[in-house]
């Protein structure tokens, strides 16, 4: 079987920006058959009105230097995204490291919603960032089923969801430790959707590997990071400061 490859096909494989850079262009289908895709300026618009609204406000907040954020959050955000980092590869070589834009935007959004807007549940999220139609839908949410925040970070396969989880865990842990009155958690449950993903997560989290292999912990805060990772086949942890419980979704249901 033969496939025709032309210069338009090849150009579609060239990235418009690097993974850690803010997206400033995107491709659209060309109405002319066989012609190269059209490159449009700006960010590809989300189909979800809530995402568009939240994204715009987080963008302005970021460009303003995170005004109003707590000292703990500012220290972490600046350390993660404004500092130079390197990690060690499989051969022991130091290589430059940057978090991808999608990873950065995800944790920034979680911080923004919690600290700057005080959003505690889905109904509040819809009222704060939705139009009248979405606000009307929020009125139909049963308060008994909406007693805590449920934030969803949508990231493409291979985009680094595990890194976003580790960023969120570290932020929540130190926020609870350093910010008076914080109601964030220091104990976490990570649930894999199947055994294959569980084994990958196990490689990342076992013995707290990801927290010390990635540039997650400001050096001066490392002594305070007393975290234990408990795998599903292990007995319950003894840590009273912080723990990550890693399991597979099938363990949550009876056979």
Question: What does this protein structure show overall?
Answer:
This protein has 255 residues and is an alpha/beta fold. The chain has two domains: 7-41, no CATH class; 49-252, no CATH class. Helices cover 38% and strands 13% of the residues. It is built from nine helices and seven strands. The chain has helices at 7-11, 49-63, 71-82, 101-116, 122-129, 132-138, 161-178, 195-205, 209-213, and strands at 25-28, 38-41, 85-88, 94-97, 187-192, 227-231, 242-248. The strands form three sheets. It has a three-stranded parallel beta sheet. The protein has a two-stranded antiparallel ribbon with strand order 1-2. It has a two-stranded antiparallel ribbon with strand order 3-4. Helix 4 (101-116) runs parallel beside helix 7 and helix 5 (122-129) packs antiparallel against helix 6. The termini are far apart. The mean pLDDT is 90.
Features:
9 helices; 7 strands; three-stranded parallel beta sheet; 38% helix; alpha/beta; 255 residues; 2 domains
Number of domains: 2
What is the C-alpha radius of gyration, as a whole number of Å?
A: 21 Å
What summary fits the major beta sheet?
3 strands, parallel
The proportion of residues in beta strands is 5-15%
Instruction: Based on Cα principal axes, name the global outline.
Output: globular
| DSSP summary, beta strand count | 7
Percent of residues in helices comes to 25-40%
**What oligomeric state best describes the polypeptide chains here?**
single chain
Category by helix and strand content: alpha/beta
Q: Could you report the average pLDDT, rounded to the nearest whole number?
A: 90
Cross-sheet strand order for the largest sheet: 5-7-6
Low-confidence stretches: none
Number of helices: 9
How far from one another are the termini?
A: 47 Å
The SSE order reads: HEEHHEEHHHHEHHEE
